[in-house]
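Hi, does anyone understand the following?
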Amino acid sequence: MVYRLKKDVWYVGRCCECGACISTCSKNILRSPRDGDHPELEVREKRIGSSHIVVDTCFFCEKPCEDSCPRLREWEKGQILHTVTVTSRLPDTSIVNALLIASIRRKLVDGAVTWDIDRETFKPIPKIVTREEEILTTSGYQYLWHPILEVLNDAIYKKGLKKIAVVGPPCIAQAVKAIRTSNNNKLKVYKNSIYLMIGVFCEGAYTQQLVQEIVDRFDINPYELNRLIMDIKNKVLRIVMQEGLMKGIPLPEIRRYMKQGCARCTDFTAECADISVGTIGLEEKGTMVIVRTPLGERSLKYAFMEK
């Protein structure tokens, strides 16, 4: 039931909006938030004679929503097998995409839940990919938020994926670990289907209001945007335009658009992932890769084997 979610997560501003509870809800009564900071609970009523009563849809539930919520657990510091700084030969230079392509080619996974952008509105959207060409057309994580795990059911039941890679920042990695380590029978299908977690460094995710701020400040259209880069060293949001020009906004000026739940997060390098990727705080050129599990080691090994 959602009692603990309401009391200990939603109503105290701790929800990260990962989407895990939406996918795993066995009663299918949780919906993505339209304007709020947490999922919405569908209210169902029943007519008895001339009266209407609100149905307790969570009655006798095994609470998969609670067991998949990363904010209802205390997380220990993640292990590190080793770290390496790498570059990618892909056209988009993405290390995440290199890992995904290699893992699919070597049949480590058969698909992935990753991030893309609606080019007209520059809104983040989840994307289920199974082919290399699909991976290469994704925009990746842009620090703009969407409850990406809400598409798990589509990946499992519509796409028929059996070994899924999930890409996401620390809160997504925590939600995946909550599912993978749970003994809740209702989470078994998700536990068996999510195979690889690729974590992305993150110092905060932002609402779509950030895009509106960029559009208004520079008098541009959303479709003119190409990529957002968090330059933590210089405390600037770098805005890369489609024509290659770059604009910037000091990070303190955009903090008001950061998601409320991010203020409660202390994990910046996705410590619950199998392998973590990012450039935050990295001085030299290249991307830092933190290998955390043997499975993460295999995915990196396969990427190195690609030509």
Summary: DSSP finds ten helices and 14 strands in the chain. The two ends are 50 Å apart (CA to CA).
